[in-house]
Amino acid sequence: VGKGAVMRMGDQDRQAIPAISTGSLGLDIALGIGGLPKGRIVEIYGPESSGKTTLTLSVIAQAQKAGATCAFVDAEHALDPEYAGKLGVNVDDLLVSQPDTGEQALEITDMLVRSN
After folding, report:
1. What's the CA dihedral at 97, 64, 62, 32 to 10 degrees?
2. Which of 32, 54, 58, 111 is deepest in the core (most CB within 10 A)?
3. Count: domains in the chain
4. Which family does the record claim for this protein (predicted)?
């Protein structure tokens, strides 16, 4: 099995995927693993006022409670520290970046992922 190999999914070892709770039991159940997959990049997308920021901050709060270092790449320059705190985010420990362009946001995200 090397680069470019094709194999059956059933031939691979299955590993449990650790998850971070979203803070919503219903959503955690719907996601099938108890939350969002830990160690993966997750894009939260939706129309304006659909709860993207609230969901993101809730997940950050849960991750911080579990001892994780968290970052918020605020492309909209709209992060409200008071609201984040009310959702349980430790804003003093939160890493925040407010890039000017989408390209900068991707570069910052890449740097954060590579730095572990």
Report:
1. 80
2. 58
3. 1
4. Belongs to the RecA family.
Is residue 73 included in any domain, yes or no?
yes
Domain that holds residue 75: 9-114
The CA angle 19-23-29, to the nearest 5 degrees, is 60
Of the candidates 39, 50, 103, 46, which has an alpha carbon nearest to the alpha carbon of residue 73? Answer: 103
The Cα-based distances of 4 to 8, 11, 13, 43 in angstroms read: 13, 16, 18, 27
In this prediction the pTM is 0.82
13-17, 29-33, 37-41, 79-83: segment of lowest average pLDDT? 13-17
Return d(Cα 17, Cα 39) in angstroms, integer: 9
- Sequence-distant (≥ 6) Cβ neighbours of residue 32 within 8 angstroms: none
69 domain residue, yes or no? yes
Helix (H, G, I), strand (E, B) or coil at 95: strand
In a domain, 2, yes or no: no
